[in-house]
Design brief:
Radius of gyration: 18 Å
Largest sheet: 2 strands, antiparallel
Low-confidence stretches: none
Number of strands: 4
Order of helices and strands: HHEHHEEEH
Strand order of the largest sheet: 1-4
Structural class: mainly alpha
Distance between the termini: 46 Å
Amino acid sequence: MTPTEAATTVDAAIEPGRPGSIYSDGPVWRAFGLSRAAYHVLPRRTLQSMPVEWQERYVALIAEARALLPSEAFPAYQVIRLNDGMFARDPNRQYRRLPPFPLCPAGAAPDGTTAPLAGAFVNTEIQFEQARQ
């Protein structure tokens, strides 16, 4: 679907909370698994470590999303790394000085995560408030 073909009104297929809604029961919803995370965060170093073809697809999809969605769908954020609820030093901030992450060897066992978007989550203000205590 191109941006010009996109629906301009909310219908039952995308309305949150409706059974079968692509918003609240679509691929992204399912990819978050049972998590209640409101965000998915990927370090720049992670993105730059992906094969070039993946980087190109990722950038193209984000560009397409920016053309389709309003600007408020892409606000600026500040990310703080937490480790066990405590502020932690983030080595990924030094992406210019670090090598890319190595690719996993072919045939390597997956990390056991069943939800593809599991892992790099920033939950809500609750985690931030806990980290500040």
